[in-house]
Amino acid sequence: HAEHGKMESQAPPPIRITMEELHRQGGVLAGWRFLLPLGNPAEGKKVYAALECYSCHEIKGEHFPQHAKSPGNVGPELTGMGRYHPAEYIAEAILNPNRVIIAGPGYTGPAGLSKMPDYTDSLTLRQLIDLVAYLKSLTTGAMGH
After folding, report:
1. I need a labelling partner for 87 at 20 to 30 A (CA). Which of 23, 40, 123, 133 fits?
2. If you write DSSP's letter for every residue of 12-25 in order, what string do you get?
3. CA-closest candidate to residue 41, choices 141, 128, 131
């Protein structure tokens, strides 16, 4: 998974615990957090292209079909974003773009919500995992503001 920069080469080892101990700890281990499975960045780049993410999000150094970006419909530049965000944050930004709303011109619509479309009905889990792996692999260049 190191096609576009440093990526974790393997998933962490499984956590082994009895159900009784898990329940005793309140249903979740101390320090536990959701981890997205590792994906394939090359396949994720294909998903990025198929969904035409490039029509709103620029990635410097990548070559996608050039669409004229309509003013006011441009999302943040994604160059180098893999250095700034964990995979789970990227996945949530795609699945629930109103979870974290970026303050500043161009990011929100008239209702004060994110302009990012909802992709929950148009992505399979595999596509999401691979798309996140691709975006996480973007570690070179500075992310735009």
Report:
1. 23
2. PPPP---HHHHHHT
3. 131
93 close to 99: Cβ distance less than 8 angstroms: yes
3-state helix, strand, coil in the chain (%, to 5): 30, 0, 70
Tokens of 55: 């029509």
Cα-flanking dihedrals φ and ψ of residue 136, to 5°? Answer: -65, -30
Q: Which two tokens stand for residue 9?
A: 């080469």
Rounded to an integer, what distance in angstroms lies between the CA atom of residue 125 and that of residue 43? 13
Sign of the four-CA dihedral 124, 125, 127, 131: positive
pLDDT at 120 over 60: yes
- CA-based nearest residue to 128, from 39, 12, 10, 11: 39
Q: Say if residues 79 and 61 touch (Cβ distance below 8 Å).
A: yes
Phi and psi (nearest 5°) for 30? -60, 130
82/87 Cα distance (integer angstroms): 8
Q: In the numeric block, which tokens belong to residue 108?
A: 């929100």
pLDDT digits 0-9 by tens, 66-107:
665 555 557 888 999 999 999 999 999 999 999 999 887 778
Backbone angles phi, psi at 48, to 5 degrees: -55, -45
